[in-house]
Amino acid sequence: MIKLLKIEFKKIRTYKVFWILAGLYFVFLAAGILLAEFMINHTVNNINQRMPIPFPHVAIYYFPDVWQNVAFFASIRYVLIFPAIIMIILITNEFTYKTIRQNVINGMSKTEFLVSKLMIILLTALIITVILTAGAFFIGLSHSGFNEVDFFTKGIPFMTGFFLSLLCYMIYAFFCGFILRNTGMAIAIFTLYSLIIEPVIYFFFRAPFMFKNTIYTYLPVNSVIRLTEYPAIPMLKKMMGLNLQDHVSFIACLIPLAYASVMTAIVFWVMKRKDL
């Protein structure tokens, strides 16, 4: 396993596009999280100009809500798309530059090649989650101060939800990149489906004229972002009647994991039967 990771790191180490996209991802992620409270309260101010009774400003960086809020904003599909695109590029480059064929010639089996990519996906998801968890902790600590341990760790399971969201979403990208094997086409189709096609399908199944159903909860990308579906903002419940999420559902975790497992199995099956 260590040998496979070393091979992957050698490929990534000098790959400028990887580091540029990774840098942009963290910049957008940090900016989105840090500006979220300002943007929400700016919207509240605009609403209050037309309301006889003003709504109070929201605070999203206090323990224990900071865990859920950070996980929610980091799980938005427009943010998750960055690491997904990085994974697509890493996969499709293997076919574009024939490095996969060279790896196999040098003695690496097809299974080892796929396992090495899955290990990179797992490690990437883990590193991002650790960084995000540390960031959320310091943001919460700077706003809440140091109190009882149970208080500021209460919502930390939401970070596990984020980890699963990121992991499964990158496996979706891994599947798309492997099946299509063309960087431009894979990025275009994956982005089009994730950001446009599935949201349209989602709102179609939730439209008033549709029969009452929960089909939209089983859509692949939606099942990922539903792990942390709502931020911990009580005002949303008052204004919109939303039942705010108070935990990460085990059943909800099984849906994207099932998709990811099936996609991974298909990739292994195709890899064994298709020429490089």
Describe what you observe in this structure.
With 276 residues, this protein is mostly helical. The protein has one domain (2-273). The chain is built from twelve helices and no strands. It has helices at 2-13, 16-48, 65-74, 77-96, 99-105, 110-144, 149-153, 157-180, 183-205, 220-225, 234-240, 250-273. The protein is globular and about 70 Å long.
* Largest beta-sheet characterization: none
Per the principal axes of the C-alpha atoms, what is the gross shape?
globular
Structural class: mainly alpha
pLDDT averaged over residues: 85
Amino-to-carboxy terminus distance? 23 Å
Helical residue percent? over 70%
Compact summary:
The protein is mostly helical. The chain has helices spanning 2-13, 16-48, 65-74, 77-96, 99-105, 110-144, 149-153, 157-180, 183-205, 220-225, 234-240, 250-273.
Index terms:
276 residues, mainly alpha, globular
Please give the structural blueprint:
Layout: H1 2-13, H2 16-48, H3 65-74, H4 77-96, H5 99-105, H6 110-144, H7 149-153, H8 157-180, H9 183-205, H10 220-225, H11 234-240, H12 250-273
